[in-house]
Design goal:
The chain has helices at residues 30-37, 77-90, 174-182, 220-232; strands spanning 2-11, 14-20, 47-52, 61-66, 72-73, 96-100, 105-110, 116-119, 141-145, 148-156, 160-165, 192-200, 203-210, 214-216, 239-244, 247-253, 260-264, 267-276. The protein has 277 residues and is α+β, with helices and mostly antiparallel strands. It has an 18-stranded mixed beta sheet that branches.
Length: 277
């Protein structure tokens, strides 16, 4: 039996397990990942954040992300903030540093009020970057799903997102529509699905059905994706408050070609250990 040390954290209620592989030997089988993420038989989380030594001297460390279905994914904004906070505290880092993710580096700033800002790269609207099956890039796409025609925007924040404007997020069948959209042939690698209620040019309400995790209390990359699409539609300013069931995040995006920034809390819940065979 091996004993694995971990830290449980959350960003706006989006809970993650932070597992630092730099100082312990951890075998990452799909069975182990699924067991660790299981809320009944393991520790339980929306995402597993694995910290490793970076192969880029500019970056302090590298992180990898696994969903409860044990599949590795490209990005998790709330998880990135938690990793940044964990490393800031454990390694006694300066307030600003850089991390290595699957597709791009992530700049992080740990603020005095305990919140953390991360730059999740430059949003891409190219269909191939998600990937999305479309002959051309459009501001709005259409599909038949769940017995109805749906319109959505699409963007990659290092991971794929479909953004739908709805009259009321409270009255939206998030699970039903989210599952149908994720199963569409338009998204060969599935997608995260955002349902957004636009309240003002600097304020929106959001629910997210995540790929491999279902609906979560918050999704940082989803908040960024929604602001990016809303900006492309001409509906939002460059700084937006994003209300999710788990709390509020602040997203800043100056526009095309610029990195998108996400700010919110990153809370350590407890440290623990689990025995695995």
């Amino acid at each position: 039996m091996n004993t694995i040390k971990f830290t449980k954290m959350h960003g706006l209620g989006n809970d993650v397990i932070v597992l630092d592989r730099r100082d312990q030997d951890v075998e990452l089988s799909p069975e182990f990942i699924a067991h660790l993420c299981d809320r009944r038989k393991g520790v339980g989380c929306d995402q597993l954040m694995l910290i490793e030594t970076s192969d880029d001297p500019v970056c302090h460390a590298r992180y990898r992300i696994y969903n409860p279905d044990a599949k590795e994914v490209e990005q998790c904004g709330n998880g990135a903030r938690c990793v940044a906070r964990y490393l800031f505290d454990k390694d006694e880092l300066p307030a600003e540093f850089r991390l290595q993710a699957m597709r791009s580096d992530v700049d992080a700033i740990c603020h005095a009020d305990g919140s953390v800002s991360v730059a999740l790269g430059v949003p891409s609207f190219e269909p191939a970057s998600l990937p999305l099956k479309s002959a051309q890039q459009l501001s709005e796409y259409h599909m038949q799903a769940a017995g109805r025609e749906l319109s959505f925007g699409a963007v990659s924040i290092g991971n794929p997102h479909a953004v739908l404007s709805v009259p009321s997020v409270a009255d939206t069948d998030v699970a039903g529509l989210g599952t149908a959209i994720q199963g569409s042939s338009m998204f060969p690698q599935s997608t995260n699905v955002e349902f957004v209620e636009f309240l003002a040019r600097d304020h929106l309400r959001l629910r997210v059905y995540e790929r491999g995790a279902g609906e979560t209390l918050a999704c940082g990359s989803g908040a960024c994706a929604t602001v990016a699409v809303g900006r492309h539609w001409g509906w939002l300013d460059d700084e937006v408050r994003v209300d999710m069931p788990g709390g509020q995040a602040i997203v800043n995006w100056a526009g095309d070609g610029q990195k998108i920034w996400l700010r919110g809390d990153a809370v350590r819940v407890f440290n623990g250990s689990i025995q695995v065979s």
